[in-house]
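Q: How would the structure tokens look for this protein?
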Amino acid sequence: MMSTNYRIILTSLPVELLYEIQLFSLSESLPCVNKRSHEIFKLATSAFRAQFLIACFENVTNKRSRARGVMTKALRYPLCTIEVMETMFKSPLCPPLDATPELPRRLFKALSSKGQSEWSYRDAPLPFLRHLYNCDRIRPPNPNSHDGYALTMAVYADFIPLIRFLLDNGASPACHNRLAVKVAIRKKDLGITRMLIESEWYDNNGRRGRDYTRPQQDDRIQVTPGLLKIAVQAGAIDIGLYFMEKGVAPDIDTLRLNLPNIIAKRPTGVAQGTQKR
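A: Here is the predicted structure in token form.
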């Protein structure tokens, strides 16, 4: 830990020298030494930030980590904004950009449910993601990074525009043993459950689409008896009936969960959009 005198001496140095020290040390604590230090690095130029991110990658010695590429490393830092990225690309020091970047957890871990109607395509992290996937300087990031963490968190937050964006860019609900689907089931959200399973079910609004229940060749995942069991355990009657109408047969454990009584209590039109026309 830095002594008080050391902190005072360090932050009294010229700004340019502080930047040089930071590029040499790659310290995560230097910008947080005191208020002045925080302000100095907060006002750092995009050129300095780009140089810092490149230096952080060059400091990586693990072969596996280096194989993930500079963008995977850079994207983990909140200072990696669109402007900083573009500055990186123009730098002669920028390493090759031929690796497929991973989507960092930091973009999604703070998502919290605030109601489906309150989310829009302007909400973070969608603008940043659109730039990443449309950028011709790098490969499209892997949407299934960290076992599909992005899609699972989007489902948890009821972030329909983000769910659709990720699915359109190759996110798979099969990741992590179908965790995103299980989250949707436990939230008792038939619309999101269908969105995850049926590749053509939702329209531009993300809520309505083709009206079918039987297994389709273009379904993203196969519905299993295990998912039906989770629906019954969660009391998600409409989702359970939807799975059964797709041809999923309950196993013996599910039958013991009072499934017959659930079916008998089925109200008319309980699973909106799951009835054949």
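The first helix runs from residue 4 to 11.

DSSP finds 16 helices and no strands in the chain.

Upvote if useful.
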